[in-house]
Specification:
about 750 residues, alpha+beta, 6-stranded mixed sheet, 18 helices, 40 strands, about 20% helix, about 25% strand, globular, kelch repeat, BTB/POZ_dom, SKP1/BTB/POZ_sf
Length: about 750
């Protein structure tokens, strides 16, 4: 340890005169020399900040006109902290509804909304998509006669008024339990159930919302009760059931950008539904014979609209395959792959990932419930949270809604109430709601997530090669350039990379001091620092609130135009580069790896910068690897990020044999090493060899505190000159999740 250094390992000494409180400038002549460099103190908001508790979503009870436990209703988040529910049927009375209900999330109150205009008929199994921020596009479904519908009605959220546009083109088959998504002023419809004998549709079509013209139908993937969304110019399909009535784990996607058929206005054609009008089906979903008489359109508020009574066609007309590239991935098994056959699943899109809420049900143990995410770019599953961290096993959830930003989700359901005979039953209301802050699980939100195919990503991927003319790229070109080249007017230094701190004394940024008067501190003339980083104080003032407060109070750095930050040079440089570009993506020079991002996480906590914290948690949780897992665990603890800390600890224990051999683990302080080892259960033990192979038959290949039976067998075979999976390297064996890609 350098003899010039004090307890923080930064070689600092106190000024000769003057106490100061935050916000009070140092104005005494002679107390500050132009040759001195001011040491950045901890943010006052950080000093007053207490260690936060671990995040766990809370269940809240609703009030007002709570709806019955409707089946196949539509539940849509419509902005302004409001969820709208429409239609559905009562699972006990078999009655089908066309009610509009609104849940005010601020006050947790349900309201039955009065609505006007061309009120649609009762229906279930329809879709309701938010359009233009203030309208719901309701399409298809089944009416009270079990007839499949193919009408489109529009509900104006501002006026509570229904309208039905004049539709042109080839109206597709009526259907229910399909999926729909709005993209590029088009309503895309995928799959569903249709026909006299009820078959699974494999088609995709769209309605042009500018001309109200239907496209033709193309063959895509046969599904119903599935989810669909748009990402990267592709339409994605996951979950649901196929023609064999089995739940599937296949992920399908279709490129919408490369084919003119999805960009041009559809041509007029003959309606598919007018060619197939055999009348009502004698089949009933509930064993009752439906009525055979059609209700005239417009005869009552509960009658179907003029274009909806149709279409229980029985023919399976051959269709051309959808234009554009089609891809499918089948996830067979893996340690993080959710089983579609267990539990009640809700799927939604957020931040470039498919979220799978595996909620409690009679077919799954509470410990098997979880929140998982499938990264669409990498095609990899990750478990974001275990079931006990989110769900109460005494509740059952029936619907899921997510906001347009992808930052919050809500599950609606009710508690299981014990009956008089001791058996469990359900209260017949959507009486409870659980709100989930998805950013607590490392999700950035759609506004901060780069989407493939976009011209100006919100978070640039590589500023070194980007040709974007955005403001961030222009500022990046001025970062850390000489004053002559960039007119920089401020200098920041950091700790040298080879400085070694005391094992038991953390860096200055990890201290949580009390909000008390402090003495301004300066580097000694002989202190070892990094090379100077040339920056512009205007950018620092605009992007770094703590710096702006200090500079405006004309404290010491106002006079010296120098500042020293007690963090490693690479971390400080990455932090300043973030201020210029709003990016912490991998950069060969300014943000090379996870070690720097872990340091940025600490700085985001010290200087109270929530957007930087969110980006750090997102990247660290997605790119966690063996080399950095221990460091990420330690830094997450310093920054009070309990979710990331638990995730990193689990990763360390799963890959324990490799983690303890990394340089990152060896750099931990003794105290941190002991804390990490104490994460293991008191009855835990390390297993290996023959015992590991035996246990390898259970749990999908990751057990104990690390390793897998297949990996042990591969290593042993390699040592003996044998060949097990020669086409896969060690990382491929570790990351393989049984994918089949077409």
């Amino acid at each position: 340890m350098n003899p010039q250094q004090t307890g923080t390992g930064s070689g600092l000494q106190q000024a000769n005169s003057g106490q100061f409180n935050f916000g009070q400038g140092i104005r005494t002549p002679g107390s500050v020399s132009s040759n001195n460099t001011y040491l950045m103190p901890t943010s006052p908001s950080k000093r007053a900040k207490m260690s936060k508790d671990s995040y766990k979503p809370k269940i809240a009870r609703t009030c007002g006109q709570r709806p019955a436990c409707l089946v196949n209703a539509s539940v849509t988040y419509c902005g302004n902290n409001q969820i709208y529910a429409f239609g559905g049927f009562d699972q006990y009375t078999d009655e089908v509804y066309n009610h509009v209900l609104r849940l005010e999330l601020d006050i947790l109150q349900w309201t039955l909304v009065d609505n006007y205009g061309d009120i649609p008929g009762v229906r279930m199994g329809h879709t309701a998509c938010l359009w233009q921020g203030s309208k719901l596009l309701v399409y298809g479904g089944e009416n009270e006669h079990r007839e499949y519908l193919s009408d489109l009605v529009i509900y104006d959220l501002k006026t509570s008024h229904w309208t039905q546009p004049e539709i042109r083109g080839s109206i597709p088959k009526g259907r229910a339990r399909h999926a729909a998504a709005v993209y590029d002023d088009k309503l895309f419809v995928v799959g569903g159930l249709a026909g006299t004998e009820t078959y699974t549709l494999d088609e995709i079509c769209y309605l042009d919302l500018k001309t109200w013209t239907w496209s033709r139908s193309w063959s895509f993937v046969p599904r119903f009760d599935h989810s669909t969304w748009i990402w990267g110019g592709r339409i994605w399909v996951f979950g649901g059931l196929g023609p064999d009535m089995e739940r599937t784990g296949e992920l399908w996607s279709l490129d919408l950008k490369s084919s003119p058929a999805f960009r041009s206005v559809p041509a007029f054609g003959v309606s598919e539904s007018t060619m197939e009008r055999p009348g009502p089906s004698p089949r009933s979903h509930f064993g009752q014979q439906p009525q055979t008489q059609h209700v005239p359109a417009g005869s009552s508020g509960y009658a179907a609209n003029s274009s909806s009574v149709q279409v229980r066609g029985s023919s399976l007309t051959a269709k051309p395959v959808a234009p554009g590239a089609i891809a499918s991935t089948k996830f067979i098994s893996g340690p993080n792959v959710p089983s579609p056959a267990q539990g009640t699943h809700f799927h939604c899109y957020s931040s470039g990932a498919l979220l799978d809420f595996v909620t409690p049900a009679g077919t799954i143990r509470p410990s098997e419930c979880n929140l998982s995410a499938l990264e669409l770019g990498a095609q990899q599953w990750q478990k974001l949270a275990e079931g006990p961290e989110i769900f109460d096993p005494s509740y059952r959830w029936h619907y899921c809604a997510i906001n347009e930003d992808g930052t919050k989700a809500w599950l609606l359901g009710c508690a299981m109430e014990p009956s008089e005979n001791g058996a469990a039953n359900f209260e017949e209301y959507l009486s409870d709601v659980i709100s989930l802050d998805l950013q607590e699980f490392g999700l950035l939100g759609n506004d901060l997530t780069w989407e493939p195919g976009t011209e100006k990503p919100k978070t640039p991927v590589n500023h070194a090669t980007s040709k974007s003319s955005s403001l961030g790229s222009n500022l990046a070109a001025m970062f850390d350039q000489s004053p002559e080249a960039s007119s920089s007017d401020f200098i920041i230094t950091a700790n040298k990379e080879d400085q070694i701190e005391d094992d038991d004394v953390p860096a200055a940024s990890s201290f949580t001091t009390i909000d008390a008067p402090q003495t301004p501190q300066f580097l000694s003339a002989s202190a070892r620092t990094s090379a100077p980083i040339h920056v512009h104080k205007l950018i620092l003032q605009a992007r770094w609130p703590h710096f702006n407060r200090m500079y405006n109070s004309q404290m010491s750095e106002f006079h010296t135009k120098k500042l020293h930050i007690q963090e490693p040079y690479t971390v400080v440089r990455a932090f300043l580069y973030y201020l210029y570009t709003d990016s912490i993506e991998r950069h060969p020079e300014y943000c090379p790896g996870l070690a720097e991002v872990a340091g940025l996480l600490v700085m985001s906590d010290v200087y109270d910068m929530p957007e930087l914290r969110l980006q750090c948690v997102h990247r660290l949780s997605r790119e966690l690897d063996v080399e950095h897992a221990a460091v990420v665990w330690e830094r997450a603890g310093t920054a009070n990020e309990e979710w990331l800390r638990r995730r990193a600890a689990t990763y360390c224990l799963t890959h324990w044999g490799r983690v303890v051999r990394t340089e990152g683990f060896k750099t931990l302080s003794r105290r941190s090493m002991i804390e990490l080892m104490e994460v293991i259960d008191v009855d835990g033990r390390v297993i290996g060899g023959e015992e590991l192979e035996v246990v390898g038959g259970f749990g999908g290949g990751k057990f104990g505190v690390g390793g897998s039976g297949s990996e042990a067998a591969r290593r042993r075979a390699t040592a003996q000159g044998g060949h097990v999976g020669d086409e896969m390297d060690e990382n491929e064996v570790q990351d393989d999740e049984g994918m089949e890609i077409n």
